[in-house]
Amino acid sequence: MIGCGAGAAICEAYRASIPSDNSHQARNTIAAGTFALGMSKLARSAPMQTKLTINGKSHNLNADTRTTLLDALRNHLGMTGTKKGCDHGQCGACTVIVNGRRINSCLTLACMHDGNEVTTIEGLGTVDDLSPLQRAFVAHDGFQCGYCTPGQICSATAMLEEIKAGWPSHVSADLNAEIALSDAEIAERMSGNLCRCAAYPNIVEAIRTVAQGGRT
Ligand code: FES
Ligand code: FES
């Protein structure tokens, strides 16, 4: 990151704010508070250069420090796969994966991610070569309007890695046992991603199919 001491301080506060229990509510509450603090401190700030690696490609972003990662992706870099729903950390439509962890891109400033690796829906698969989750969403009818779908798929992609790594959730009965991917586990772990079309049963089915190694 170039210049701007306030920006660097806010980045530090952001990193320190990441909760160890990864609870969705705690994550969003803390991120929202840090974000608000950042926005007020940066009220008179200037453009800043930020290096981002997005879907394996390097980008130099020159944007106002108040630019969210979501707006940087959509408005500055032309990657419109990531969707803006509420813009307040409540719907999950803007979910992307940063350094392997899923986050709401509307709740974080782009300048906080200098040097980070970002994966968006465009990086998970292509029209000719869909990712396993993308194929499963199609096969199981896991969407209607499709607006929430990029966020659902990014979230589910990272969520399956969390399970592989043995991270328990709020509904895991035994913290030491291997995690059984029940419907309750999937629902809890995907609770940050809302679907206004209520395609939930099919979304759960799609995720379960991929988690169990099923082909679609
Ligand atoms: S647009 Fe980010 S959570 Fe709704
Ligand atoms: S498919 Fe329409 S909001 Fe989820």
Automatic annotation (TrEMBL):
InterPro entries membership: 2Fe-2S-bd (IPR002888), 2Fe-2S-bd_dom_sf (IPR036884), 2Fe-2S_ferredoxin-like_sf (IPR036010), 2Fe-2S_ferredoxin-type (IPR001041), 2Fe2S_fd_BS (IPR006058), Aldehyde_Oxdr_Iron-Sulfur (IPR052914), Beta-grasp_dom_sf (IPR012675)
Molecular function per GO: 2 iron, 2 sulfur cluster binding; metal ion binding; oxidoreductase activity, acting on the aldehyde or oxo group of donors
Xref: CDD domains: fer2
Residues of the 2Fe-2S ferredoxin-type domain: 48-124
Annotated GO CC locations: periplasmic space
Domain of life: Bacteria
Any Pfam family hit: Fer2_2
Sorted UniProt keywords: 2Fe-2S, Iron, Iron-sulfur, Metal-binding, Oxidoreductase
Record protein name field: 2Fe-2S iron-sulfur cluster binding domain-containing protein
Organism listed in the record: Pseudotabrizicola algicola
Lineage of origin: Bacteria, Pseudomonadati, Pseudomonadota, Alphaproteobacteria, Rhodobacterales
